[in-house]
Design brief:
By secondary structure, the chain is an alpha/beta fold. The protein has a single domain, classed as Rossmann fold (3-Layer(aba) Sandwich), CATH 3.40.50.720. It is 43% helix and 15% strand. The protein contains 7 helices and 7 strands. It has helices at 18-29, 41-53, 68-80, 105-132, 154-174, 199-207, 217-228, and strands at 9-12, 33-38, 57-62, 86-89, 136-141, 179-186, 239-242. The chain has a 7-stranded parallel β-sheet, sandwiched between helices. Helix 2 (41-53) links the parallel strand 2 (33-38) and strand 3 (57-62). The protein starts with 8 loop residues before the first strand and ends in a 7-residue tail after the last strand.
């Protein structure tokens, strides 16, 4: 199945590393012009350099997506490239680890700001732009923790559950206007987000996946690109797991 995005413009947040980087690279390889956005300008520029070196089209962008003004500017950047046809709300953080009764308030606000508010801002500013561009497809990056709990991560779990709700709501609202909205729920993926874990924690996480390993960013990207493509034209408002059997336990 050959998936192509020639002539389309994609905005990917959190594109500087991990899952977002893989998605940005794959979209560009499939013909899209990619706005690669990240909190760290240098990371975004590095990904764009990789894309252009491979013959693809991309522009870097940076800023804090928990700020609505930043997200509005990212969408404007996409529009200067010829429209907005594909949107991946991928940026996310792990946040502190503590039980709900001890969870730091500032940590709560930070996680909700990046993992939930930023997704809403992406929809809020991206959907009108996408309508002007003739429609398109959106993927919101949720998590397995959008369907199950994880002790010590109340903010992350709450945010990812809410992302799925936002996805379903927006999908209903725009299904007849040429915009599809879906969510992807990765399990623990071997990305820089896990780099701070010691080996014992890493092995504990691996053991929670019946597949016997962590996922790979390119595996999440493959599903994301399918959902963004016309091959998925009858799929909207749904939540798709990439979890190595994690939620089957």
């Amino acid at each position: 199945m050959d998936i192509r995005f020639d002539g389309k413009v994609a905005l990917v947040t959190g594109a500087g590393s991990g899952i977002g980087e893989a998605i940005a690279l794959d979209l560009a390889a499939a013909g899209a012009t990619v706005v690669a956005a990240d909190l760290k300008a240098e990371a975004a520029e590095t990904v764009v350099a990789r894309i252009t070196a491979a013959g693809g089209k991309a522009v870097p962008a940076s800023g804090d997506v928990s700020d609505p003004g930043t997200v509005a500017k990212l969408v404007e950047t996409a529009m200067t490239q010829g429209g907005l046809h594909l949107l991946v709300n991928n940026a996310g953080i792990g946040g502190p680890s503590a039980p709900t009764g001890d969870y730091p308030i500032d940590g709560w606000h930070q996680v909700i700001g990046v993992n939930l508010n930023a997704v809403f801002f992406g929809l809020r500013f991206g959907i009108p732009a996408m309508l002007k561009s003739g429609g398109g497809a959106i993927v919101n990056m949720a998590s397995i923790l959008g369907s199950v709990g994880f002790a010590g991560a109340p903010a992350y779990v709450a945010a990812k559950h809410a992302v799925i709700g936002l996805t379903k709501n927006a999908a209903q609202e725009y299904a007849t206007q040429g915009i599809r909205v879906n969510a992807v729920g990765p399990a623990f993926i071997d990305t820089p987000l896990l780099s701070g874990f010691d080996e014992a924690t890493r092995q504990w996480l691996i053991a929670k996946h019946p597949a016997g390993r962590l996922g790979r960013a390119e595996e999440v990207s493959a599903l994301t690109l399918f959902l963004l493509s016309d091959q998925a034209s009858f799929i909207t408002g749904s939540y798709h797991l990439v979890d190595g059997g994690y939620t089957a336990l």
